[in-house]
Automatic annotation (TrEMBL):
Key word Electron transport present: no
Pfam families membership: SelR
Cofactor (UniProt): Zn(2+)
UniProt cross-references to NCBIfam families, sorted A to Z: peptide-methionine (R)-S-oxide reductase MsrB
Source organism: Crystallibacter crystallopoietes
Organism lineage string: Bacteria, Bacillati, Actinomycetota, Actinomycetes, Micrococcales
Catalytic activity reported: L-methionyl-[protein] + [thioredoxin]-disulfide + H2O = L-methionyl-(R)-S-oxide-[protein] + [thioredoxin]-dithiol
Protein name as catalogued: peptide-methionine (R)-S-oxide reductase
């Protein structure tokens, strides 16, 4: 057993998070909520860019790994880099799932599933709440 409290580069009290985030963001990011499917602003987004953590601003995913999973949430087949996210076993709702959190601030992002048969390089689906992300569109490149 590890008795040392976990620490993260960005550590704020729940009061601070509650002040800085909207109620919807707080519920998903800090209370592991899930936005309703097909309602998130990035569900069908194909804009090129980088997806940052809505809570701390760290870069987590890019549009290059985003794919159309038709599951109702933005889906990626890999994070921007290993180490950007952390994984936790989640047995809530009677299902064994792998929760995905931001490694920088420990905010909830979504879940990762694998072996579903998607034709992506990893056959993994990072099923991420739009409200946990902030898309930073890529600057137009000079012609
Ligand atoms: Zn974060």
């Amino acid at each position: 057993m590890n008795s040392t409290p976990e620490t993260f580069p960005v550590a704020k009290s729940e009061d601070e998070w509650r002040r800085e985030l909207t109620p919807e963001e707080y519920q998903v990011l800090r209370q592991a909520g899930t936005e309703r499917p097909y309602t998130g602003e990035y569900c069908d987004t194909h804009t090129a860019g980088v997806y940052r953590c809505r809570a701390c601003g760290d870069e987590l995913f890019t549009s290059q790994e985003k794919f159309d999973s038709h599951c109702g949430w933005p889906s990626f087949w890999a994070p921007l880099a290993e180490g950007k996210v952390r994984y936790l076993r989640d047995s809530a709702l009677g299902m064994e799932r792998i929760e995905v959190r931001c490694a920088n601030c420990n905010s909830h992002l979504g879940h990762v599933f694998e072996g579903e048969g998607y034709s992506t390089p990893t056959d993994q689906r990072y099923c991420i709440n739009s409200v946990s992300l902030k898309l930073e569109p890529k600057q137009d490149e000079a012609p």
